[in-house]
Structures are given as C-alpha cells and as structure tokens.
TrEMBL record:
The enzyme's E.C. designation: 1.4.1.21
Stored SUPFAM superfamilies: Glyceraldehyde-3-phosphate dehydrogenase-like, C-terminal domain, NAD(P)-binding Rossmann-fold domains
Protein's job: Specifically catalyzes the NAD or NADP-dependent dehydrogenation of L-aspartate to iminoaspartate.
Note: The iminoaspartate product is unstable in aqueous solution and can decompose to oxaloacetate and ammonia.
Signal peptide start and end residues: none
Chain sites annotated for binding NAD(+): 114, 180
Database matches in Gene3D superfamilies: Dihydrodipicolinate Reductase, domain 2 (3.30.360.10), NAD(P)-binding Rossmann-like Domain (3.40.50.720)
BP-aspect Gene Ontology terms: NAD+ biosynthetic process
PANTHER family: ASPARTATE DEHYDROGENASE DOMAIN-CONTAINING PROTEIN, L-ASPARTATE DEHYDROGENASE-RELATED
UniProtKB keywords: NAD, NADP, Oxidoreductase, Pyridine nucleotide biosynthesis
Residues annotated as domain Aspartate/homoserine dehydrogenase NAD-binding: 7-110
Pathway assigned to this chain's UniProt record: Cofactor biosynthesis; NAD(+) biosynthesis; iminoaspartate from L-aspartate (dehydrogenase route): step 1/1
Listed name of the protein: L-aspartate dehydrogenase
C-alpha cells in the first residue's frame, strides 16, 4: 500500500519503520509547516499533498491533528487509521468524522492502541454488559505533560497516587495524550459515559500497566498488560504503535482476525 503518515513522533517513527519493512511505501508525511525543510522530499504541509498518491492515511499525531485533518482525508475518499481514539470523546469531532466518512465513502479505522481484549469486550457488548472498569497505571514520568502535573509532584512522587477518577469521556478529554486506551475500552464496550476510569501514578513500576475488568451476561473477565514504553516517549507504549501496524496488516490481507 501507499501510505500517507501524519506525525513524526515516537509512534510515527515506529510505524514508518515497521510498515516499510513489510513492503508498504510511506510516500508523504504531514508535519507542521516549520518542519518541512527537515526532509523536503518526504515532508508535506497539507492534506491534498498527503493524499495525492495515498491508498491509506495513518494518523499518529494526537487529537488535535485528527480533528484538523481527519474530515478532509475521509471526505476526499481516503481511508484512515488513527491511534488518537480519545478524540472521539468530543461528540462534535466524532460527528464530523462520521459525516466526512459518509461523504467520502471512506472508513476511519481505530487502532486498538496500548490495550488488548477489545475483541472480548465488543463481543460481550452484544449481550448485556453491566460494568466496565479501566485502570491505567504509569510511572510518574509517564504522566508528564498531562493533567496529572497539576495534581501531583511527579518528579518527587514517592507513593502510589490516583490522580483521576471519572468516566471514560472525562478521562479522554482531560488526558488527550494518556487516556486513548480509556476511549478504546469505552468504544468497544458500554460507551464513554458508562465506562469507569481510574488513572494512577506509581513510582514502583517501570512499565505502563493497563487493566480492564468487565461483568455481564457473558460472565466476567480481567485483562492486564504491562507494556514497555517507546524509547522516544515514556508516555506512549510500544504496543500502541504495533497496533497501528497490525491494523494495516488486517486491511491489506484477504483473511483477517
Ligand atoms: N491509542 C493508544 O493507546 C495511544 C494513543 N496515543 C496517541 O498518539 C499520539 C502520538 O503519540 P506519540 O507519537 O507518542 O507522541 P509524540 O509527542 O512523540 O509525537 C507527536 C507527533 O505529532 C506531531 N503533531 C502534533 N500535532 C500536529 C499537527 N497538528 N500537525 C502535524 N503534526 C502534528 C508532533 O509534531 P511536533 O513535534 O512538530 O509537535 C509530533 O511529531 C498521542 O498524542 C496520543 O493521543 C499515544 C499512546 C497510546
Ligand atoms: O501508551 C499508553 O500506554 C497509553 C496512552 O498513552 C493512552 O492511552 O493514550
């Protein structure tokens, strides 16, 4: 496939290497105007340049980028994978994506991100699903640049602290760089307003730990993952980048999970 990539950060760099290693071609990367000169053969500054040759766009740049570029990409008929799932907690953005996808007859594919078990949750949600709880736990520095900074002394933290309790919608909106998992769990399960979320800074751990508990007609499950973060960003788990690559594989193969 010919890929247009949005972003050049930690996730985008992993995705770029992995998709090229699988024989796809990244022919354009949409960056901020001030960065184009860093690699003028690859970097572009507008959606028309991004989608000119693309079979698919992959967005790895955050909520604001999805909201800014997503409608134009989809509306022009180019399918898109996004890792910034939490942006859909804003109903206006979700509505814009949906109507652009309908106009362009294109799909927005949500990467599963740093969590697993979404298949189980979405199957369970076709029956009666009573309760879904997501707990996200990261080392203090994994919360740098988030709303936790205003609530805790992250640099000096010596004990486990919960800095957020609320719904998945509140979490995704308040922590755009850290609670995309809450949004993915919500979308797979019982929705943004029913999914309960707790976010924790834990100085005793070195990985990003995500847990989901669900109960319903299907029974109960508990899923826990300890994810390594990406070398260039302690906030983001490597699995989030890998899930984008997995989604691309699904889209390019005739038999898929
Ligand atoms: N679903 C999931 O489980 C996860 C999702 N995420 C989401 O992925 C996003 C990216 O993560 P990560 O790669 O680690 O973050 P980084 O901070 O490493 O990289 C973000 C990149 O996006 C670029 N960017 C941001 N806004 C724009 C814009 N409007 N136009 C062009 N480029 C833009 C930045 O450019 P510049 O450097 O010029 O600012 C930078 O290259 C996160 O913000 C988060 O929302 C992250 C982790 C897990
Ligand atoms: O990468 C992670 O571990 C999770 C994350 O930041 C998010 O959910 O946005």
């Amino acid at each position: 496939m010919k890929i247009g990539l949005i972003g050049k950060g930690a996730i985008a760099q992993h995705v770029m290497g992995a998709v090229q290693a699988r024989g796809h071609m990244v022919h354009a990367v949409l960056v901020r105007p001030g960065s184009i000169s860093q690699n003028p053969n690859l970097f572009v500054g507008s959606v028309p340049e991004l989608i000119a040759e693309a079979d698919l766009v992959i967005e790895c740049a955050g909520h604001q980028a999805l909201a800014a570029y997503g409608p134009q990409v989809l509306g022009q008929g180019t399918g898109m994978i996004t890792v910034s799932v939490g942006a859909l907690a804003d109903q206006t953005i979700a509505d814009e994506m949906e109507s652009a996808a309908s106009v362009g007859q294109a799909k927005l594919h949500l990467a599963s991100g740093a969590i697993g078990a979404l298949d189980c949750l979405s199957a369970a949600a076709t029956g009666k699903l009573d309760k879904v709880i997501y707990v996200g736990r990261k080392p203090p520095l994994g919360w740098k640049g988030s709303a936790a900074e205003g609530r805790l002394d992250l640099e000096g933290l010596t004990q486990v602290e919960t800095h957020f309790t609320g719904t998945a919608r509140e979490a995704a909106l308040a922590y755009p760089k850290n609670a995309n998992v809450a949004a993915a769990v919500a979308l797979a399960g019982i929705g943004f307003d029913e999914t309960q979320v707790k976010l924790i800074a834990d100085p005793s751990i070195a990985q990003n730990v995500h847990e989901v508990e669900a109960e319903g007609e299907f029974g109960q499950f508990h899923f826990r993952i300890s994810g390594n973060s990406l070398p260039d960003n302690p906030r983001s788990s490597a699995l989030a980048a890998m899930s984008v690559v997995a989604k691309l594989e699904q889209l390019s193969k005739p038999i898929v999970m």
